[in-house]
Structure prediction request, 273 residues.
Amino acid sequence: MRRDVVLRCEDVTAGYVHKPVVREANLEVRAGQIVTLIGPNGAGKSTLLKTIAGSLGKQGGAVYLVGKRLEELSVLEQARVRSVLLTERPRTELLTCCDVVRLGRQPHTGRFGTLSEIDQKAVRRAMELLQVEDLAEQQFMRLSDGQRQRVMLARALCQDPRLLVLDEPTSYLDIRYQIELYDVLRSIVAEGKLGIVMTLHELTLARQVSDWVACIKDGVVVAQGTPQEVFTSAVIDDLYDLEPGSFDPLTGAISIGCRAERMPEGGASHEAT
Prediction:
């Protein structure tokens, strides 16, 4: 069954102060699908993600959200269909974890921000899915980084979006919670209402959880396809400038000591991902 397109990028160019970082990127995300961006540090993954999230303006091309250009949607309309979790950490002095998760319902409440029973149910469900219900009354700023990440993910899901945008969602999570997180994401997209686009560094996790993978190198989407099509020695070795045969598509392992001598011009970028 063909799902609705919740995000489409057409020839998107984006960057900072008239300096393009990503050039003419094309990408599509459908409901019921997890699309993952991979590539070396500084390749432009986060720049593209921030453009999709609306926190960074594009320099060319078009971004469509549920069939409409971003420019055609008000901030409130965007918030009702797109939820975003980037790597920045918000300051939430004196707010409890439950307060933080409740913030995800703001686009759906009235002018006074009063939560209905439907809103409260969405809050409870999100906290249960991320296993943070026992942290409900604790102050958010007193939690560990891993706990905060799970609470923020609960807030993003509580928003009940059509598109969920995640930048390195496994940051600060130990392996147990990484696995549990992806189980949650897979169960949510299986309902067929939500699409997810995210960045990941962990290739093994990306291969296991993704329906579609886009490879970004030097600001260009150089390859995309199913995990089976992307996670080959030829694609991954070229993407990360490895010696031919370094990546083993059967195990997902990369041979130690096989990094190629060639490096991108100018060295490492200022962009983290």
